[in-house]
Amino acid sequence: MSHNKNFPTRVVGIFAGLLGLFLISTSPSLGSGCPCNYTPANLIDVVTADTLLLEVADIEETVQVAGIRVPRLESQSGSDEAWCKAEGGKAIQARDYARTLLSEAAEISIDETERLASGTLIAVVYIDNVSFGQELLYEYLAVETGEVANWCP
């Protein structure tokens, strides 16, 4: 049986490589999807659960949360979508929950995706490095853009 002198070096090299991959994959900054390069913002007001007034770079901005739709506070004239009082109640619940999440957040940041002609920013909003829109989805206070909302019984 032949003994390979490089065997210990190879084993150590393989072990070191695996350890490096493990450390990279469990790193807090990589594992949490840190939006460290996003723009910091401060809460001014919550208009609706998906429409926020934020201070971004010392400018007051109206920010529409990207990727979600929330219940409407009231029927909108000219809209083909049905509206009921239950949707209005759900809209108030969503707005209050949004207000609580945002006011308790240690850090708010945005990732701008688009600016409308009206000046409104469409952006993914993060609270303490967690997607704000996803939090509303988890609580059934929003639906993803393009999905049919069933707010009325």
Helices and strands in order:
Elements: H1 7-25, H2 28-31, E1 39-48, E2 51-56, E3 59-65, E4 68-69, H3 85-104, E5 108-115, E6 121-127, E7 130-131, H4 132-138, E8 143-144
Parallel strand pairs: 3-6
Antiparallel strand pairs: 1-2, 1-5, 2-3, 4-8, 5-6, 6-7
Please give a structural write-up.
The chain has 153 residues and is an alpha+beta fold. The protein is built from four helices and eight strands, in the order ααββββαβββαβ. The protein has helices at 7-25, 28-31, 85-104, 132-138, and strands spanning 39-48, 51-56, 59-65, 68-69, 108-115, 121-127, 130-131, 143-144. The strands form two sheets. Strands 1-2-3-6-5 form a five-stranded mixed beta barrel. Strands 4-8 form a two-stranded antiparallel sheet. Strand 1 and strand 2 form a beta hairpin. 23% of the residues are buried.
How are the strands ordered across the major sheet?
A: 1-2-3-6-5
Strand content range: 25-35%
Q: For the record, what CATH class of the domain at 39-144 applies? A: Mainly Beta
Identify the overall geometry. Answer: extended
CATH topology of the domain at 39-144: OB fold (Dihydrolipoamide Acetyltransferase, E2P)
Q: What's the story with the biggest beta sheet?
A: 5 strands, mixed, barrel
Q: How many extended strands?
A: 8
- What is the number of helical segments per DSSP (H or I, 4+ residues)? 4
Order of helices and strands: HHEEEEHEEEHE
State the separation between the terminal residues, measured CA to CA. Answer: 78 Å
Could you tell me the mean pLDDT?
A: 83
Secondary structural class: alpha+beta
Helix % is: 25-40%
The CATH architecture classification of the domain at 39-144 is: Beta Barrel
> What is the CA-based Rg, rounded?
23 Å
Low-confidence stretches: none
